[in-house]
Design goal:
Oligomer: single chain
Largest sheet: 9 strands, parallel
Strand content: 15-25%
Distance between the termini: 20 Å
Number of helices: 8
Structural class: alpha/beta
Helix content: 40-55%
Number of strands: 11
Radius of gyration: 17 Å
Shape: globular
Order of helices and strands: EEEHEHEHEHEHEHEHEEH
Length: 258
């Protein structure tokens, strides 16, 4: 199935070599901006601000202020706003009302290019935030993170298809492997989703050291983005951006030769 790329500024997600997203996970404003400088100096394609790490994240004025500073510092590098909830591996718990308010503020700020919306927030809330993102002219990444294990292939595909049916621009699932077979299950689900169901780019990964291979072989199976660490990692198994970039290019060259 032909998947149309999502173009964010000059970055074409879903086309060619998987794009590298670098998370920014500082707790203070100074830490956040320092990490952003490292991301800008790296070979990452776009940045993700993990706002759940920010010590003053429940203050909307502070959040918008950080987004403004990030936009100025990152220049034309795309920026994804993410508040990862504690239930999906994030740093903080949050009410549905606050979660909605944070994502609305990010979308309406004019500084973020994408927002991340967790699928298990509930379909009504997800649909509301996707519509808000689109009203603001930005993209919505709908995601699911399972730190307990790896669902079976049909369930992973079902979750991705649900994200797509809700209107997501980019679909994302990350799972925790217990065995090497779990990593294979994630890769097979990725390939089937990409080949038979996806109408938009997908992002998949198997976490931890066991799942590290999934972070570099996305182009083979159909995953369009991988996450690499410019300084601190935001999830188990993340690879440094330099090493990640070299691995992605090597696989890309190999695929071009097939």
């Amino acid at each position: 199935m032909k998947v149309a790329p999502v173009v964010i500024r000059d970055v074409r997600i879903g086309e060619g070599i998987p794009k590298i997203c670098a998370p920014i996970v500082g707790k203070t404003k100074a830490d956040i901006l320092e990490e952003a400088e490292q991301v800008l100096a790296s070979s990452a394609d776009f940045a993700e601000w993990r706002a759940d790490w920010f010590e003053d994240v429940y203050n909307m004025e502070s959040v918008v202020g950080i987004l403004k500073d990030l936009r100025e510092l990152l220049k034309e590098m795309p920026l994804l706003f993410t508040f990862r909830t504690a239930g999906e591996g994030g740093e903080k718990s949050v009410s549905p009302e606050m979660y909605t308010a944070l994502n609305r503020a990010a979308a309406q700020s004019g500084y973020a290019d994408m927002i991340d919306v967790e699928l298990f927030s509930g379909e009504a809330l997800v649909s509301e935030l996707i519509e808000e993102a689109h009203r603001c002219g930005i993209a919505a990444v709908v995601s699911n993170h399972d730190f307990q294990g790896t669902p079976d292939q049909k369930e992973m595909i079902r979750r991705l298809c649900t994200m797509q049916s809700l209107g997501a621009d980019i679909l994302k699932i990350a799972v925790m492997p217990q065995t090497p077979a779990d990593v294979l299950s994630l890769l097979l689900a990725t390939e089937e989703m990409h080949k038979n169901h996806a109408k938009c780019p997908i992002i998949t990964m198997s976490m931890s050291g066991m799942g590290m291979i999934s972070r570099i072989c996305g182009e083979t199976f159909g995953s369009s983005v991988t996450f690499g660490a410019a300084s601190k990692s935001s999830a188990p198994g993340q690879i440094g951006i330099k090493e990640l970039s070299e691995s992605l290019r090597m696989i890309h060259q190999g695929l071009k030769g097939t």
